[in-house]
Q: What sequence folds into this?
């Protein structure tokens, strides 16, 4: 009997917390921020890129158009109001003492300096009610909160993501890796 | 023995040895004050830096270092490497991603306070702290060329009221060698206290900056060439150059693309920095100095507490009789231990409290000086949360340290003090 009880006890303590505390936030990936039906290559289907020379003005023009298309990437509408959890790198925008209240979240390190900036649907403007302690530029964090679409006309797409966060934590490698 | 009379006994015994313990107390007081002071200056320096600018997405200026651009555009410290052409500013402010853009023209001063040339929109758009906007304590924004709006500290220090006439001088610094004496300004507005560099700034229109330098064609006043104030309006006062610009975007997530646009601007080499990133860079540079200062002040605390332990250990010798009599009267070794530990705790706590009080008084006295000379605003307060942790740390360390003499007294045998050594 005691053995059985202790087995149950161990079982509950091991499995319990993860099973009982249901995660209200759905873990999102950066790919899921790109609308599924969006195909940046659509416009270029008619163009046989393989037949173009490097110096061909049509190739140069297609490249610049491709850059624009990528830069004006649309947002996924179904994410408006979704409770999500996502990991990325933070770039502080607004600070209160040494705490951060607003930051941008981007999917890869160096997203703002060494390469062309990520498209509009790969940047999340994060606003935290509770100031976040100890945040440095390009810190890896996992944020959970409610996603919203911020509609504003700009040369780079008509809307962007804005996340009202409830929790910001340091990024941890997934278990087993 | 119950603890209360024991503690009274400890306090009285300590009072009997007040001179030596008093010196130790002063050492602990000073070291606590130093530790808390380092922490306070660190926290408040960050606070006043970070609250100086809010809601600005990009600071744009001629190409230079990002920290330097921030320092002169926002904090009016240091000098600009070059100016930005007005046409570039017009292109930037007309960019479809830009919600607002504020031109800044710096370089002149008035009795040590920076003069900032800008547009009236500055008073509506500029914000500090957590999206707080500027407010007028009295008067209003500038309308005429020779109108000026002064920050709260400028008004307080120099005793300015709305309607007063002031003279600006060429270049930065408090020694007014070259004055723009022929073109006095009139104070039309005074701003509310913000705790930011705005308080120490005199705001004038961009046209005023152009007007001031109309006759400065040779880089110095030319004899015989002087344009009286009344004739200034006959000239084209449209600004040709500005020093920097603050930009707010319609959508903050466009900031990387806008930054790229400015940095790759074809017209002239420009630099756009995100204030948050530049401030973070600044902290990383200053961080080492901060940590060194902190380590030094922790060492000072350790020295102070080591002094306490040494004094108490030394006192054990002179207190041999006292402790032996207590033992003979029935005090157990545990009671002696508690007495000694209580004495240490008492001295540490008293020292720490006095240190915190000293810091509160000194920081209130020196706050204006710090603000004026270092631009750091010390908020008068007793203890902040992080300071409270340090304060508690000092007391706990002191308590642990005083266990050493306690333990030693405990180990002393009963007979030890009763048999005088000859």
A:
């Amino acid at each position: 009997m005691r053995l059985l009880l202790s087995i149950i006890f161990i079982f509950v303590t091991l499995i319990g917390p993860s099973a009982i505390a249901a995660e209200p936030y759905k873990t999102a990936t950066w790919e899921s921020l790109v609308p599924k039906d969006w195909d940046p290559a659509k416009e270029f289907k008619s163009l046989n890129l393989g037949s173009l020379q490097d110096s061909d003005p049509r190739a140069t023009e297609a490249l610049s158009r491709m850059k624009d298309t990528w830069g004006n990437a649309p947002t996924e509408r179904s994410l408006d109001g979704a409770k999500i959890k996502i990991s990325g790198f933070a770039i502080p925008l607004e600070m209160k003492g040494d705490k951060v209240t607003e930051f941008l979240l981007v999917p890869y390190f160096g997203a703002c300096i060494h390469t062309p900036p990520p498209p509009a649907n790969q940047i999340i403007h994060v606003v935290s009610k509770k100031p976040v302690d100890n945040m440095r530029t390009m810190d890896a964090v996992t944020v959970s909160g409610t996603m919203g679409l911020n509609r504003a006309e700009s040369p780079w797409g008509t809307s962007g993501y804005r996340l009202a966060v409830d929790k910001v934590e340091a990024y941890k490698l997934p278990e087993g890796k | 023995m119950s603890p209360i009379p024991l503690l009274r006994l400890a306090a009285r015994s300590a009072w009997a040895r007040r001179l030596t313990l008093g010196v130790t107390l002063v050492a602990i007081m000073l070291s606590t004050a130093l530790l808390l002071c380092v922490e306070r200056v660190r926290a408040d320096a960050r606070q006043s830096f970070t609250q100086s600018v809010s809601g600005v997405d990009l600071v744009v200026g001629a190409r230079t270092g990002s920290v330097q651009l921030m320092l002169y555009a926002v904090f009016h410290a240091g000098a600009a490497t070059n100016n930005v052409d007005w046409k570039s500013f017009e292109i930037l402010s007309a960019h479809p991603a830009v919600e607002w853009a504020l031109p800044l023209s710096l370089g002149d001063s008035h009795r040590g306070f920076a003069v900032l040339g800008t547009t009236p929109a500055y008073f509506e758009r500029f914000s500090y702290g957590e999206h707080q906007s500027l407010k007028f304590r009295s008067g209003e924004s500038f309308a005429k060329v020779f109108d000026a709006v002064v920050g709260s500290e400028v008004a307080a220090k120099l005793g300015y009221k709305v309607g007063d006439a002031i003279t600006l001088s060429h270049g930065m610094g408090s020694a007014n060698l070259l004055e723009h004496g022929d073109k006095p300004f009139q104070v039309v507005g005074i701003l509310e206290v913000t705790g930011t560099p705005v308080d120490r700034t005199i705001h004038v229109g961009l046209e005023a900056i152009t007007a001031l330098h109309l006759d400065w064609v040779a880089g110095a006043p030319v004899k015989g060439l002087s344009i009286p104030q009344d004739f200034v309006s006959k000239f084209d006062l449209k600004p040709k150059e500005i020093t920097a610009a603050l930009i707010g975007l319609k959508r903050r997530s466009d900031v990387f693309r806008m930054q790229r646009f400015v940095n790759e601007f074809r017209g002239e080499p420009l630099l756009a920095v995100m204030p948050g990133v530049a401030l973070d860079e600044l902290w990383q540079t200053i961080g080492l100095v901060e940590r060194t200062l902190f380590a030094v002040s922790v060492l000072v605390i350790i020295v102070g507490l080591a002094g306490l332990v040494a004094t108490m250990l030394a006192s054990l010798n002179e207190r041999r009789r006292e402790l032996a009599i207590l033992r003979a009267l029935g005090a157990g070794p545990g009671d002696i231990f508690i007495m000694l530990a209580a004495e240490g705790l008492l001295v540490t706590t008293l020292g720490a409290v006095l240190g915190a009080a000293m810091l509160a008084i000194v920081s209130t006295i020196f706050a204006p000086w710090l603000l004026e000379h270092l631009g750091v605003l010390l908020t008068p307060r007793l203890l902040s949360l992080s300071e409270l942790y340090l304060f508690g740390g000092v007391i706990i360390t002191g308590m642990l340290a005083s266990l050493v003499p306690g333990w030693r007294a405990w180990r002393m045998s009963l007979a030890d003090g009763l048999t005088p050594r000859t």
Notes: Chain B has two domains: 3-49+287-418, 58-273.
